[in-house]
Amino acid sequence: MSATPLPAKASLSQLRARAKELRKAVVKGRPDAIGLARAYHPAFDPAGFTLRDAQLTIAREYGLASWPELMQKVATEFVEGRELHRYFGVELNNETWDLLEQIDETSPLVDQERMLYGAYAACLHWLEAGNEANHARGEHLIARVALRIGRVELGLHHARRCLELVLAHPERMGDWDEPFAREALARALAAAGDTNWARHELQRVQELMDTISDERDREVLREELAKEPWFGLTS
Fold first, then answer.
1. Contact at 8 Å (CB) between 144 and 184?
2. In the chain, what are the domains?
């Protein structure tokens, strides 16, 4: 099937949202979505259609062999005049959070590596384009990814670095940065077997919840706190 031209002013945020919608539609059995995936995915399997499969389908629909190639094409052709480090910091951050919903320590090693390296790459781009708050949030993401794939010492290192940055640069931080930093540290400590200190950090998260001014940010934190793994801390 012939490739579809990329839309004018294409952005990876729009394409990522479309990939998410495609995955949901395939899972629900919508004929148009299944037809699109069957046409462009080289090994379409409706029973195990993941976000990565949806991204590959979208990339091939536009004539690219992979999602990373689509990312590069959009960046080079449609981000002219924009700061590329910031652009890739945002895109890699968002993509890695998406992968965090799908990949864990039982996943193929190449998938685990892709998620971990994506988190590191996002943080590197923010070191070039952002400030200490962006750096801290990058460390938080690396910690969460490392813990998700069973790299406990690595996760603990980055969780501690995240909190260190938050406490050292309060003028740069949002009112939600410290509770999120302590959430990651609580998980890491629990994974490392330091249950008492992990409970202390989790209690601090609950105390700091009330200091977050925006209800939407509080809700995001509550949603993250409801997600595993907690390594037995909240059971």
1. yes
2. 12-78 (no CATH), 84-225 (1.25.40.10)
Contact 111, 145 (CB under 8 A): no
Condensed to tens digits (0 to 9), the pLDDT of residues 19-46 reads: 999 999 999 999 999 999 999 999 999 8
DSSP for 155-176? HHHHHHHHHHHHHH-GGG--TT
For residues 75 and 81, give the distance between their C-alpha atoms in angstroms, rounded to a whole number. 11
C-beta atoms surrounding 226 within 10 Å: 9
> What tens digit of pLDDT does each residue of 148-192 get?
999 999 999 999 999 999 999 999 999 999 999 999 999 999 999
* Cα 93 to chain centroid, rounded: 5
Distance separating alpha carbons of residues 51 and 58, to the nearest angstrom: 11
> Is residue 126 within 8 Å of 135, Cβ to Cβ?
yes
